[in-house]
Design brief:
- This protein is α/β, with parallel strands linked by helices.
- The protein has one domain: Flavodoxin domain (Rossmann fold, 3-Layer(aba) Sandwich), CATH 3.40.50.360.
- It contains 5 helices and 6 strands.
- Strands 1, 2, 3, 4, 5 and 6 form a 6-stranded mixed β-sheet that branches.
- β3 and β4 form a beta hairpin.
- The termini are close together.
- The structure holds flavin mononucleotide (FMN).
- The site of flavin mononucleotide has 20 residues, from α1, β3 and β5.
């Protein structure tokens, strides 16, 4: 399985999570075609990937109004029909429904979203490992 990881990050947590997820998936034998910020996309890496993993951070008033940051940018990603997708967001206190909103945005690109996880910013290692393990366990084999 080949995965592309696309993220948006202000202070580095979501980028770090993307790198950790990539390392964990590689340990499981997956290929990583790109780990890149949403505003500097590597199109070849996206095209080559069977799965696109999209990560962002939670923005809001901590207990209300939470949303995935810059979800609008996801609408400008290339169409992903025929690809699998997974999502993650990093947060500090409470992600609210950010992951659902992110899933909706990614599924509008035509990808089949198979799951996602909210990663606490103080447990990036642990939660990235869990995310990668769940992805590997839940990804259908492709012909
Ligand atoms: C302006 C701002 C608003 C935030 N709002 C929330 C929030 O509503 N809920 C929450 O759990 N975390 C919130 N956070 C915390 C970030 O989601 C968290 O630190 C995240 O890991 C940042 O990711 P980054 O380092 O990739 O930018 C907020 C952070 C900022 C800067």
């Amino acid at each position: 399985m080949k995965a592309a990881i696309l993220y948006t990050s202000l202070t580095g947590n979501t980028r770090r999570a993307g790198e950790l997820i990539a390392a964990n998936l590689q340990q499981e034998g997956w290929g990583i075609t790109t780990v890149s910020p949403l505003n500097e996309l590597e199109m070849a890496g996206i095209q080559e990937a069977d799965m696109v993993i999209v990560g962002t951070w939670v923005h809001g008033l901590f207990v209300v109004g939470q949303a995935p940051w810059n979800v609008g940018a996801i609408a400008h990603l290339p169409a992903m029909r025929g690809k699998l997708a997974a999502t993650y967001c990093t947060f500090a206190l409470n992600p609210g429904k950010s992951l659902d909103k992110l899933d909706t945005a990614v599924s509008h690109l035509g990808a089949e979203v198979i799951g996602g996880l909210a990663l606490h910013r103080s447990k990036l290692h642990e939660h990235s490992e869990e995310f990668a393990a769940r992805l590997v366990a839940n990804t259908p084999a492709r012909a």
